[in-house]
Fold this sequence. Notes:
- By secondary structure, this protein is of the alpha+beta class.
- The chain has three helices and eight strands.
- The protein has a six-stranded antiparallel beta barrel with strand order 1-2-3-6-5-4.
- The chain is globular, with a radius of gyration of 16 Å.
- It holds the Pfam family PNPOx_N.
- It comes from Streptomyces alboflavus.
- InterPro entries: F420H2_bilvrd_red/Heme_oxyg (IPR052019), Pyridox_Oxase_N (IPR011576), Split_barrel_FMN-bd (IPR012349).
Amino acid sequence: MQTTGNARRGAAERRRDTLERLAAERDVWVSTAHPERGPHQVPLWFLWDGRALWMCTGATSVTARNVRDEPRVRLALPDTSDVVLIQGEAECFSDDEVPGAAAEAFTAKFGWDPRAEDAAYLYVRVVPRTVRAWRGEPELRGRVVMRDGEWQE
C-alpha cells in the first residue's frame, strides 16, 4: 500500500483501508505470552471473515500453548509504513471442532487444508477488540479505529 505522505486520513477512510487490507493480506504477526516464559511472536497466514481473523498453527506449537494459557493476543499486519495493530482474545478450535465455513474459507484462500494433515492443527480465531491504524506521524492522533469491539466513526 502506498502512503499518502503528510495527508491525514479521516476515520471512515482509515476503517475502509483497514478492512481492505484485512481482506487482501496473507500474513499477520501474532504476539502471545506465557506467564513464565514471556513473549513469543510468529508470522502466520490468516483469513478475515468480516468479523474475525482465523489462523492455523500446530496443536503443540508455542503459539498454541500460549493462547491456551493466556488468550489475550496482539496481531500486526507486516507493513510498517501502513500500520495496523489488533488486540483481541484468541479462541481455539481443534481441526474437528472448527466451524466448517471457516475451515473451507481458509483452505480456499491458501490451497491448504490443515484438517487433511497427519499432524494435529489448531485453528485460532481472534475477534478484534481494539484496532489501531496509522500512516506516519500525522496520523498518530486518532489512530484507534476500533474500541471495545466497535468501529469508530
